[in-house]
Specification:
The structure holds 2 protein chains of 2 kinds. Chain A is α+β, with helices and mostly antiparallel strands. Chain A has helices spanning 45-53, 95-105, 110-123, 139-151, 169-186, 197-203, 221-226, 231-236, and strands spanning 6-13, 22-29, 34-38, 60-65, 68-69, 80-83, 157-161, 190-194, 206-211, 214-219, 241-249, 254-257, 261-264, 276-281, 287-288, 294-305, 309-316, 319-326, 338-343, 349-350. Chain A folds into 2 domains: 6-233, P-loop containing nucleotide triphosphate hydrolases (Rossmann fold, 3-Layer(aba) Sandwich); 239-350, RNA polymerase II/Efflux pump adaptor protein, barrel-sandwich hybrid domain (OB fold (Dihydrolipoamide Acetyltransferase, E2P), Beta Barrel). Chain B is mostly helical. Chain B has helices at residues 2-21, 23-27, 44-51, 53-86, 92-104, 107-120, 127-151, 156-163, 168-196, 200-205, 213-223, 228-257. In chain B, helix 4 crosses helix 9, helix 5 crosses helix 7 (127-151) and helix 7 (127-151) packs across helix 9 (168-196). The chains are: A alpha+beta, B mainly alpha. Chain B: InterPro entries: MetI-like (IPR000515), MetI-like_sf (IPR035906). Chain B: It is found in: Cell inner membrane; Cell membrane.
Amino acid sequence: MSAPYLELRGLGKSYDGRTRALDNVSLTAAKGEFITFLGPSGSGKTTTLMLVAGFESASEGDILIEGRSIGRVPPHKRGIGVVFQNYALFPHRAAAENVAFPLLMRKMPKAQAMAKAAEMLGLVGLERFGGRYPREMSGGQQQRVALARALVFDPALLLLDEPLGALDKNLREQMQIEIKAVQRRLGVTTIFVTHDQSEAMAMSDRIVVFDGGRIQQVGAPLDIYRYPSSSFVARFVGDSNILAARLTDPAGGQAEIAGIGTVRVPALPAARAGDAIELLLRPECLKPGSGLDNAARLTVDVIVHFGDSALVTGHAGGTPLRARLEGLAAQGISAGDTLPLSWATSSSHVIGRDAAG
Amino acid sequence: MRGLLLSLGAVVLAFIAAPLLIVVPMSFSSAASLEFPPPGWTTAYYGAFFGDARWTQPTINSILIALAVAVLTMAMVTPATFALVRHRFAGKSAVNLLLMLPLAVPHIVIAIGYYAYLSDLRLLQTFPGVILAHTALSVPMAFLVLSASLKGFDRSLERAAMSLGASPAATFRHVTLPVLWPGFAAAALFAFIQSFDETVVALFVSGRDSMTLPRKMFDSIRTTADPVIAVVSTLLFFTVAALVILPMLWRSFSRSRS
């Protein structure tokens, strides 16, 4: 692998000199990569973005683009495009003038800048809206203008700070696809900040999970989903059952769960018998019937039908358990029923241990 | 009940509006002194006002002083407001209090203070003296108006501008100032009007050459009770009302257009 395009090196930020908003954040990204910062509010994801954009300065660490430090470069000289949550379009300028703004700041002749702005508006599907003022446009249209404005000057990086937070669900999904398409077409290295895990799953090459001012895990979306490194990540990304278990045979992959009994788990040769582990079982990995490696009997407390699927909440022995069943398979189940369920050992994951064991 | 409330409202409205509007018919009165109702009608006093340098000169003085006050006030209040709204520093609340002080201190006290102070500086009865004193009175209002609009200003606009390559100066010129323009205009307008109709301080510190219009009116009503005063009042009333109302009309017009 070649030298990283973007490197965050030990970034730290403290506002009052004592408590740390950000602690030792290190990360590299390849050119053209789409990286999502995912985490709850106050986790440090937005702070990191602000440091990269240059709106705030890091207390420790450095930021490098193609090996050159930009840590002391003022924001207007960084050449980084930013899309804000509230779009931050200039209300006194029409859409095309908003998009031309970064070009005019770079001393491009006005006619040329307006032509390039029009071209960029075309790329986001707003070729006929150049004369509209922001207040005359819908949220989705404003978002596209903001995207065009952040991309028109060929930025070294594109930063998106929860850009879809204010949009309704359908529009949000549509914008996810559009942003991704434009990003891929221009090949711009992108950092996308969100607290919405499904958005992160849908858009990213890699996800960086933040919590408490630290990076918790970095990985491809499916790897994070399947092999979370902590119970925080397991709970934050996707729905989950996290079962407390005790290893009975680490090398052979056997453990004991209260209320369910002996189950097979991925083998953990390095662990010792008697170790407490947390077993992650995604609700959709639980299947009706007893055909798979491990079985449990679920007493149903609540069932919620979504049509394509149904979420069953209940308990097995004393252990609470959630199962997501196919919609048709769940027909006829009601609260109080006892349901035989089973799961494949390979679909489970021991939290905090490597996938290979 | 409803009728009672309505008539009560009408009485209150009349009580407030009547003294404001009574000067209008009086300005067209043919009487030799101020009196209501007018015995007959004439526009002669309008001619007397515009043709008499003893009236036009104070009018011009007032306009020049108010313009200078608006400029000086904005030059001082703009950086002060940005500092107080956007930054934390030691003694911030003391500075805040100091800026608002002219609003709390009775005008007559300020007038006496400036009388003593400006006479030491040999600025009594001069334009700079009146301008300084009026600026001190305008600062709190302008600060209140400007800080209200600055607090409502979305700073991500500035961040966006900077990320797009605008230097801090260019950001202020191309984004902050145009977006906050109505706030700046309102603050300057308040400063202008405040100076234009200020009387108490002007009585003490303005002199023969720097006489303002309200002071001239005061002097005039003590000596002659000339109906020209009603003319001036009418003109003042409509000028100030226009200054306040026109921006509102313009704003609602440009809003309905979009």
